[in-house]
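ARCHIVE CARD
Drawer: 12
Card no.: 0347
Subject: one protein chain, sequence and derived structure
Cross-reference: see card 0346
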Amino acid sequence: MSEVQPVQMPDVTRNAEGNERRLGVELEMSDITVDRLAKLVSEFLHDQGMAVDVRESGRYDREVVGDPAGDWQVELDFGLLKSMGRQAIEPGMMGELVQSLEELMASVAETVVPVELVSPPLPMARLQQVESLISRIRKHGAKGTSDRWSNAFGMHLNMEVPESTADYIASILKAFFCLFDWLQVRCQVDMARRVTPYIDPFPVDYVRLVLAPDYQPDLEQLMRDYLEFNPTRNRALDMLPVFAHVDEKLVREYTDDPRIKSRPALHYRLPNCDIHDEGWSLSLAWNDWLAVERLAADRQLLNLCCHDYLAYLNSPSERLFGQWLKTLQGQYVPMLTGSSG
């Protein structure tokens, strides 16, 4: 694992309203209980000078309330069990049967289902606080992706977009597609996560469409093209939250998934959550993500990169020998990160 780096700030720090951009962080882990994790978060925020409290939403989820940025969620990432845990158990034989079934499911879930910590949208100036919180959770025994072969755990980043325009979003998609191979290597994506559908790659035909030099759609066409090829949350970069923020009715024409939450943010799902590893941190994935934003903002470099990657995709021999990663590391990454990548 790489040496931990300081958390960098993006080049664009303000949103369209002039307020500081925000970032939400989701961390999946095991070997820690919902109650223990909620207590650690509460204690940490209290140490930061916040008057916070833990509220029980159900038997398997908690809320840490009182942070000016919003509530922190701590939950067992198992929808059915959470739903059962929010229902009162009726007295009598049927209630005892339901309780026994729930306890059985809970005991099985503890071995395969992660406990998830979801932050509110935090001002980006607070990202170093998240690093400190991760360190505290690590010291209390939480385990992450590489601890077990079955731990398909991720760290999700929800980056507020500075503007919800077709030009900005299309540029981000182009840059992400170009840099995906490098990001995947940098994230060291675990095999357990690769074989699940949660971070499926984008269809090559859609990538070709977006990279084409004449692809300059308006916002509605951009969303429809995306939804035609990707009517799912299961992408390494899930655009459905920001598209639902722009036009939720249009998104619902293509998918009725209730888990899609409208917010002015990109949902980056690629990174592992190796919270038990002292060499792992938020900064590793976040600082690499900033290369996507820099490439998207440099129109001349972006056009050149799209041209080169499209040529690679259209060349069977180039794809056979997989030279694109070497091209990125030798030509583009140094300009975007100041290092050899």
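Annotation on reverse: The chain has 13 helices and nine strands. The first helix runs from residue 34 to 47.
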